[in-house]
Amino acid sequence: MNEEFDTYDHEIITSTGQFENITTNFHGSLETAVETARYLQNLVRGGEGIPEAEYNSVLDRYLHEKKGIEENEWTKMNKFQQDVLQCIKRSVKRQNYKINKE
């Protein structure tokens, strides 16, 4: 297979927020396009973070066992994981406030 003929023009759109994104244009193989898209997503999210199973365990402990987040877990999370957890924590506080108010 001749790689010269197996390359294409690509446009990768990466979400950086609810209504924001960045667009990247380049010429390369399909494999490179997938690798580049994953790389950009990790950059936006702040790195790899903790594995999904460990993250789910942290969320379950917080929501169901009412245990806090350990400092070492928090520091290993990427920005995206931290942002989601912060939203959940605020939601739990609002719900607890409403319950205690009644």
Explain how this protein is built:
The structure is a single chain. This protein has 102 residues and is α+β, with helices and mostly antiparallel strands. It has 2 domains: 43 residues; 50 residues, no CATH class. The chain contains 4 helices and 2 strands. A two-stranded antiparallel ribbon has the order 1-2. The longest helix is centred in the C-terminal third of the chain and has 23 residues.
Please specify the SSE layout and strand pairing.
Elements: E1 8-15, E2 21-28, H1 30-45, H2 52-64, H3 71-76, H4 79-101
Antiparallel strand pairs: 1-2
Q: In what range is the share of β-strand residues?
A: 15-25%
Dominant shape? elongated
Average pLDDT, rounded to a whole number, is 85
Helix and strand composition category: alpha+beta
Strand order of the largest sheet: 1-2
Element order: H for helix, E for strand: EEHHHH
Termini distance? Answer: 70 Å
Q: What is the tally of helical segments?
A: 4
- Poorly predicted runs of 5 or more residues: none
Radius of gyration: 20 Å
Assembly level? single chain
Which range best describes the helical content: under 10%, 10-25%, 25-40%, 40-55%, 55-70% or over 70%? Answer: 55-70%
Q: How many β-strand runs? A: 2
